[in-house]
Amino acid sequence: MQDIDGIFVFRFFIRDIYIQLCRHRCPTPVRVYRGQQISEAELKLFEKCTGKLVSFKPFYSTSRNREVAERFALGGGSDGTSLCSVLFEIEADPRRTTTKPFADISVFSDFKDEAEVLFMCGSIFRILNVSPDQNGLHIVRLQLCSDDDHELKKLFEYMNKQNVSWDGILAFGNLLLQMGKLDDAEKYYRIGLSQLVFTHINTVYYYHGLGIVQKEKGDYAASFQWLQKSLELYKNMGNHSSVAIVYNNIATLHFNKSDYKQALDSYNMALEIYRTQINGDRQDIAMCYNNVGAVYYEQKKYLEALEYYQKALTILEKILPVDHPQLGGYYNNIGDVHLNLGHDVYAFEYYRLALTIKEKTLPAKHPSTATTHQSIGLAHEYGGDLTQALKHFEIAAAIYSDCLPAEHVSVVEIKKHILRVTTAIGEKKSP
């Protein structure tokens, strides 16, 4: 479980460790080891993900001494649980200039024989292979990645650029919102807002962030109040782009209340600002096109919906990294349209693209990933494969229950899907 408050409180301490690791970093390539016991399911996941990336959230402690690491791997296990003894063998080259720092800290340790090498938290490794050895160990070979040589590089660069101008608490709130941590995002937005005077330029961004959080939580009345506050401030600032974004958000509130006329009116106000005040391909213009498509989708005007979804996707594919999570959402929407048009093959292909991106770039319990599992479940249900439908509905339900309140519309809806499919399966089994 992530300790969000701990990360925030100790952010300066973490930064200081980063500086110290940079100062004492290993000058030459090293091979180090880490022994531990993990569940069989975790081991199978490593085997399945050979060639892919893994990141360990805490600081990662290793040893130059293989025998020391083997003792950690083979020790313990007396609590009756079934665990696998694993030795991680890690190759790390500091000459790759943009790797996370790592340093031999044995000189600072009370246990000199451990020859400890510490890796910065968030270090990214590639899984090279997994194999058993004759001592009953499973060897997992890892290689430390440079920030320049893995497929998430462009995504990280893009997200860093997006947060470059925010203050620290606001940036932290924005990150939590992107992660789907709605309660935590709201908490830090409110903390940041409480520390500002009303006239501070960042006040409007906190209002806007709180409006988005409440929208995602399904509290549309509270969301509308925050968004209206931000709208007035943006207008006074002459910030045309942000005014358009807020109109887009307000339109989404109308959409969520099934007031499609008001939704289209607000979306068109946003699009008019984009047409008259802003030039070029922009992410927020694509979002507006996507939302107009969503209105047409709910009105069962599927061809019109597809037209606007495609307009949005065309813009985003020009300006976003290929693995950006927002593309996953747009692929999902196009898959939904194709499913309703009876284009099953196209629907499954777009769902596959969506799920691949979301599983790669979003936290494991993100509601957007649940949305795609729900869509895949519906596709299987329409195709008559009730077992697969139930499987994906249950995955979606588990994610929703972890990150959304029990009364949220998505939680209620997925329970209805599960009940309907479970009933249908039971009826099929009945004589």
Structure description:
By secondary structure, this protein is α+β, with helices and mostly antiparallel strands. Among the domains are: 4-74 and 83-148, Toxin ADP-ribosyltransferase, Chain A, domain 1, CATH 3.90.176; 320-431, Tetratricopeptide repeat domain (Serine Threonine Protein Phosphatase 5, Tetratricopeptide repeat, Alpha Horseshoe). Helix content is 61%, strand content 12%. It has 18 helices and 8 strands. It has a 5-stranded mixed sheet with strand order 1-4-8-7-2. Strand 7 (124-132) and strand 8 form a beta hairpin. Helix 13 (302-319) runs antiparallel to helix 14 (325-340). The protein is globular. The mean pLDDT is 86. It holds the Pfam family TPR_12. Keywords: Repeat, TPR repeat.
SSE map:
Layout: H1 4-9, H2 11-23, E1 30-39, H3 40-48, E2 53-55, E3 60-63, H4 66-74, E4 83-92, E5 102-104, E6 116-119, E7 124-132, E8 138-144, H5 153-162, H6 168-178, H7 182-194, H8 203-217, H9 220-237, H10 240-256, H11 260-277, H12 283-298, H13 302-319, H14 325-340, H15 344-361, H16 367-382, H17 386-403, H18 409-429
Helix pairs in contact: 6-7, 6-8, 7-8, 8-9, 9-10, 10-11, 10-12, 11-12, 12-13, 13-14, 14-15, 14-16, 15-16, 16-17, 17-18
Features:
18 helices, TPR-like_helical_dom_sf, Serine Threonine Protein Phosphatase 5, Tetratricopeptide repeat, 3-stranded antiparallel beta sheet, repeat, single chain, TPR repeat, 431 residues, alpha+beta, 5-stranded mixed beta sheet, 8 strands, TPR_rpt, globular
Radius of gyration: 25 Å
Helical region count? 18
Which topology of the domain at 4-74 and 83-148 does CATH recognise? Answer: Toxin ADP-ribosyltransferase, Chain A, domain 1
Q: For this structure, what is the CATH homologous superfamily of the domain at 4-74 and 83-148?
A: Toxin ADP-ribosyltransferase, Chain A, domain 1
**How do the helices and strands follow one another from N- to C-terminus?**
HHEHEEHEEEEEHHHHHHHHHHHHHH
